[in-house]
Amino acid sequence: RDGAGAPAPAADLRSRHRAVLPDWLTLLYERPIELTHGEGRHVWDADGNRYLDFFGGILTTMTAHALPEVTKAVADQAGRILHTSTLYLSRPMVELAERIAALSGIPDARVFFTTSGTEANDTALLLATAYRGSNQILAMRNSYHGRSFSTVGITGNASWSPTGLSPLQTLYVHGGVRGRGPYAGLSDAAYIDACVADLEDMLGQTAGVAALIAEPVQGVGGFTSPPDGLYAAFREVLDRHGILWISDEVQTGWGRTGDHFWGWQAHAGNGPPDLLTFAKGIGNGMSVGGVVARAEVMNCLGANSVSTFGGSPVTMAAALANLDHLLAHDLQGNARRVGGPLVKRLRAAGAELGIVREVRGRGLMIGVELVAPDTGQPSPRAANLVLEAARERGLLIGKGGLAGAALRIAPPLSLTAEEAAQGAEILTESLRAAERGLSSA
Ligand code: PMP
Questions:
Q1: Top enzyme class of this protein (predicted)?
Q2: 250, 252, 257, 408: which to mutate for ligand 1, most atoms within 8 A of CB?
Q3: 282 closest CA partner among 314, 328, 320, 336
């Protein structure tokens, strides 16, 4: 579409990006994509290509791209007040806090708003360590919780944790992902028992741990679900030691997993977590994150505090409109109804392909684990080939997992059955193309 010799707009932007932004700011694709706009479940790039979005802008588009109610709420609020800061009363902030407190399942809940998942987890760590008077944290192997000084320290996935210079003392627990080690072949019940024994063993060697933080389904880790009930079993042990449970719902919240509104509900044996963190989708693209905690925990900080941008009226208005839409259209039910058949289709396709080791998922949070067919070992190269092949065919997906060999599928929650079928078809073709690409390499 460009004149002869002129750089394509996206190519120009790519070189400018590389010249001025950090090297560690990971970009997807050999030729990274510049997105220009979106609508529903589709996005467009600067070269005029349209993509079906199976990655939801990495889950920030909870309901749909450019949802009219959210756009209107943002415009109305932006036209009214540009001042932010928690030093003044704010109606949208109080209203959203009331809604989230009621939805959280946490009794006597208090809500604090942040601008990212990282800051939400950082705040949860601040609260838990202050409440317990300890800087010891239990985190899950293969976990991801953010990119700040404290959250890289509890991120169990080394490829996303650039330094080990954490202010926290972190102990890593088995359970979030079964992996390939001695736990791989166990039944669900035996696996839970083994993980609980590991936890008890660890707690026998340390004293005064503040909290366990865990993603109910590991996101960056590759959409791996532990067996239902794992965290309920952990909870019994934690309760005996007075240790708090922080559920990182940044990826699993708001009905994405279909059967449940929160990921922790798959582990609800002993009730809700003490703290819950959220972010990403609730603002449908606007920066909204936060922490919910029992009043006793939230209010344990004695000092003054203020947030300049957390809970700002424009972002709160976006989240309120988004949440209304989600609930009014039962998008959690949609995730279940559309996600179930999508997993089945992908399993059927995967059964015929040597590169697919496992298709796993709940609702619209689906992982596909890829291996090299000749060795059976995790294959990040296969994942890259599938990503590129899907892109060429007009489908955006993500990747993750400890080895970078898992595909991550997380479309906006309004995905229709037809779009799911279309995406499954493109993904199947892309998996076949990648398998051919691997064997010809
Ligand atoms: N927790 C989880 C489970 C996440 O997946 C992420 C983001 N990938 C974060 C926390 C950090 O969120 P943010 O990027 O908004 O800081």
A1: transferase
A2: 250
A3: 320
